[in-house]
């Protein structure tokens, strides 16, 4: 039986597999890991910690991509 966790990302609900990490979620959803700042439950996650950030049911994630311009 496949167990899934319910998370919210930028106000939208998602289901992810148990033991799924934030970097994998971002790659699966075509979100540029190297250009995106992530916060889980209000805590900013350093880019080098995205792989070790295991998503849990009820997590609220904010993803922000910065675009330069002039």
Average pLDDT: 93
Principal-axes shape call: globular
Evaluate the radius of gyration. Answer: 12 Å
Strand order of the largest sheet: 2-1-5-3-4
How far apart the termini lie comes to: 51 Å
> Helicity level, as a percent range?
10-25%
Element order: H for helix, E for strand: EEHEEE
| Main β sheet profile | 5 strands, mixed
Give the helix tally. 1
Give the strand tally. Answer: 5
> pLDDT under 50 segments (min length 5)?
none
User: Structural class per helix/strand content?
Assistant: mainly beta
Proportion of strand residues = 35-45%
Topology of this protein?
Layout: E1 4-9, E2 12-17, H1 22-28, E3 36-40, E4 43-45, E5 60-65
Parallel strand pairs: 1-5
Antiparallel strand pairs: 1-2, 3-4, 3-5
Description:
10% of the residues lie in helices and 37% in strands. It is mainly beta. A hairpin with a 2-residue loop joins β1 and β2. Strands 2-1-5-3-4 form a five-stranded mixed sheet, with no helix packed on it. It is built from one helix and five strands, in the order ββαβββ. The radius of gyration is 12 Å and the shape is globular. It starts with a strand and ends in a 5-residue tail after the last strand.
In short:
It is built from 1 helix and 5 strands; from the N terminus they run ββαβββ. It is mainly beta and about 70 residues long. The termini are far apart.
Label this structure with key terms.
70 residues, mainly beta, five-stranded mixed sheet, 10% helix, globular
């Amino acid at each position: 039986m496949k167990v899934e966790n319910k998370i919210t990302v930028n106000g939208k609900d998602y289901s992810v597999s148990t033991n799924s990490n934030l970097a994998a979620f971002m790659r699966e959803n075509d979100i540029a890991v190297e250009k995106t700042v992530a916060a889980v439950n209000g805590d900013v996650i350093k880019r080098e910690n995205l792989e070790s950030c295991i998503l849990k049911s009820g997590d609220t994630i904010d993803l922000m991509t910065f675009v330069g311009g002039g």
